[in-house]
Structures are given as C-alpha cells and as structure tokens.
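Lab notebook, page 48
Experiment: co-folding of the full assembly
Goal: obtain a model of how the components sit together before planning crosslinking
Operator: M.T.
Materials (sequences as entered):
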Amino acid sequence: MSGREPRPPEQQVEASGPGSVGIGTAGRVLLLSLVGPEWEERAERVQRWSGWNWPQFFLVLLLDAVALSLAPDGPVRQIAWVYAAMAIALVLSFCRVAGLFRPRDEGDARGRRTLPPLVSLGCVVLASLAIVGMNHYAEHGEAEVTGRTEITGAASAADGGRLTVTVENTPHRNHLRLSLVLTDAVPGAQSCVPATTYDAELAGSTDVRVEGVRSGETFSLPLGGVRGAVRVDVVLHTDPGCRLGTAVADAVLHD
Amino acid sequence: MGETVTRTTAGRGAERHRAGHRMRRRAVVAAALAALLATSCASDEHDGRFLGTREIDVGIHKDLPGMSLLENYTYSGFDNDLFLDLEEWLEGEEGVQVTRNADVPSAARIAKLQSGDADLIIASFSITPDRMKEIDFVGPYLTTVQGFLVDADSRIRTHADLAGKRVCTWDGTTSRVALEAELEDTVSVGGTDAAECVRKLRDGQADAVSTDQVLLYGFAQLEPGENGLRVVPGLTVGAPQHYGIGVAKGHREDCGRLAEWLKGYVGSPEWQANFREAQPLLVRENPDWISRHKPEDELIDAHSCVDKPKV
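Observation: model returned without errors.
Model output:
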C-alpha cells in the first residue's frame, strides 16, 4: 500500500535531449493550469486544420481560379454546370480540411480511412473538368453579343424601310440568333406593331433569309464562315403611314 | 348469450343509426356545397351584372354624321348601329340595363371612363398604345385612315398642295398628332369638335379638315354637290386608325366576353350591312372598302383587354 500512485496519462511527460525535461514538464504544467485536462482534444481538432489537408485544398482553389479566368461572356445558363462543379469541388475539399471525412476511431472501417484521399482526388478531377468545360464554352459556346449590336435607321422606319443590324468584334461561331423588338414610333397616334412583320437576311447572301418575323420573335441565321463583323439586312412590312422603332432584344452567336 | 346477442344487435342498430345519420348529414352538406357551387357558377355567368354594374352607361358622340349623329331625336351612323347590337346582347344575354349618354366630347372620353361616368365608350375611339395604358379597349370594330375634307372646288390633291394651308383638327384626337408629325408645313387650326372644324371650312377660316376618312365621308355625304364638301381621294396621312370600344380597366373577364361578342359581330353580315347603310358615299367611292375597313380577328385579339398591343 506504499509507493506513489501512477499519474493519469494526461499528466505523464516524456522528453529527451539537453534541457528538454524541464521545458516539457513546465509546458505541460502550464497548459494544464490554463486549459485543463481536455486540452489534448482541442489540440487534436486544431491538428485537423493543418498539415497535409491544406495542399489539396489550395490545388482545387487554383484550378477553380483558372477555370474562372476562362469563363466566356455567354449566357450563364449554359455554363451553370461548370460553376456547380467548381463550387462542389471547393466545398468538398474544404470539408476535408475541416476533418469531416476523418476516421472517428481505430475501429472505423477501412473504406472510411480511404475516403479522405478519394474525396481529394474527386475534387481535383471536378475542378479540372471545370477548366475543360470553360475552355470548351469559350471556344464553342453561346456568345452574348447584344451589347455589341447596332442598328442603322432604327429610330423610325416606315413600310419597306431598310435597316442594318451590325454585330462588331464577334467571336467566330456558325450561327447568329437574333430577336428584334418593334415599337410604335408615334404611340399617341397609331397601333401598328401587331400588323407588322420583317424579313432578315445575311448581308451579301440572299440564300440566308427569314421572312415574316414578328416583333419579339427569335430567329437564327447560319453565318457560313463569316469572320469579323456580322451584318444583317432587315426590311419592314407594315401598314402605309405607320412608323416603327426597332431595337435588338437579344443577339447570341452559337455553333 | 341471448342477452349478449340482443345487446349486440341493439348496438349494431345504434351504430347503423349513427352511420345513417352521419351519411345524411354528409349528404346535406354535399348538397349544400353543390348548390352553393352551382349558385356561384350561375352568378358568374348571369348575375345581372356586367362591368360590376346592373346599368351600363354607354357614352357616344352625337355630332358625327355617318358614325354617330343625333338629329330630330333620332340617332344614326355606324357607331350607333354597333351600340344597338351591343345593347341587344347586353340586355338579352347579360341581363343588364343599357342607357345611352350622348354627351361625350372626344377630349373627355378617357376621363369619363375613369371617373365612372360611362361604363363603355363607342365614339370613333382610336386604339393607341398610350391610351391602352389608361383604359382597356375591345376592338377594333372598324379600321380607317386619316384623310382630308375640302370644299368641292378646292385644288388640294397632294401633300405638296397642303404646304402653307390651314388645316383644322380638334382637341383630344389622334389626327392632330399625325398631322404635326408628318406635315409640318401646314398651318394648324384648332377646333373644339368636328362640327366647328367643318363650320370653319365652310366659312373660309380653314382650307381643309383632317381626321379619319369615315368621319369625313359622313360630312361629305351631308353636303354633296358642286358647292358641297368632298374627301380628297387617295390623300392620307398617318397610320391606320383602329376604332375600339373603351372600357375602364379592372374588368378583364367581362372585357374578354365583350371581345368574343365583337369578333362575332365583325364577322357577321350585320357588320357589312350596317357599314353600307351608314357610309354609302365611302362604299361608292372605294370598291375595296371591306378589305380596308374590316378588321381581322387577330387584330381584335391583339388589342382587346390588354395593357399594350399583343404580337
């Protein structure tokens, strides 16, 4: 019944090297006095936020940044899945940093232990796919060009009036999807829009033509290898005496 | 045992009685609901109200020969014929009383509807996007174009002949807007109404009166001959004018029913007969009058009961 009782595990200290005994003991005593016996559990939590969990996160972050820099100007809906992939990759890799995929105890299944590296691999693959996707849509996706479109003679045109829609600095695509909005130029004295249609054709190519288009209706013209500025000639058909304004509602280049 | 059987039978009888009572109660509730539903459906269709009232006040003009003229206590004209057909439908099918208010100046048509002084306006009322923001239209029931009325001996035949000439239009019409937009070198002479403009033309204070041709032909057929008035053939300005029935906003369901009725009216022989009777001079001078003046169903759908023209 004599002799000292063994210290509880959290108070046992082992250290080696010159001067390390005193320092180790002092450090542990200090920690115990400051944060109590549960300090090791807290330290373990902090450990999850460090070490080898961070490089995979920074890699995914870098890949996402590259994908973002390649994002085209086109409609967001076409690249929505790319943004989704980027977001999922980033969130999952951060979850690994936070230790959400870490085995809870030694008895955890083997599959559970292999989950963190698999998650990291998946995140890298997803972020890489995002780069490929962005690159693809930058080359072949829909390009929103409404802001680069001009109409000559749009203020007020009568029956038979000719307008030219010009799209400047266009990325190379095979088709132009266009929608024009017609408005009554004298809204206090006429209501001509419902009875008005227009024909549109690619400038210099009478083969590429659509007829009888109404205000707000969308049509698509094949561009046939046109590079640089795209010009579309428009002819209005309305009742005699009507005057109409024209504006571009939507202009999109696509393959 | 026997007691048990009796009690059980009695219990079943009581249950059956309670079940029967519940079923009867459910049947009564169901019948009441069905009756309520039927009543509410019926009230949607024929509750004696249209545009929220049992007495429809229709505003019309009284000074436009060929369209709506009150003379010797008798109405005549195409708008008046439309009113009579509409009155028959409203009183017969919708079960409302219809009265005619023949004191609606052109400039007050929108205000009359908005203030509730009139429930409907049938007064050569051109449908425009600007007006559609303030009131609803049902129509068009007639399409016309703006022309020029001159003395029979006038030399005005072309737009160039109008340069420097005094042209009379009156307040609250689209005619003045179109004239100022397209023929800036004419001298605008104002009038309070059509009759005043025609009086100014006869008195030499104006060289021409400009408004919709169906109105001008109405005046011309009142004063034919060498010393009378004539509509300059082929001389027009501005866009086609589509006449609609004005309705205050907020009654889209009734408005839609009225639009369906109007489509039937415009497509019927009645429309042609009324036009022929009201505008004999126009019909005589314009053999293609039906294609010029009769609107298609698509045009009626595009303008009826909407805040802006549908495409």
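Interpretation: Chain B has a mean pLDDT of 85.
Next step: discuss with group before ordering constructs.
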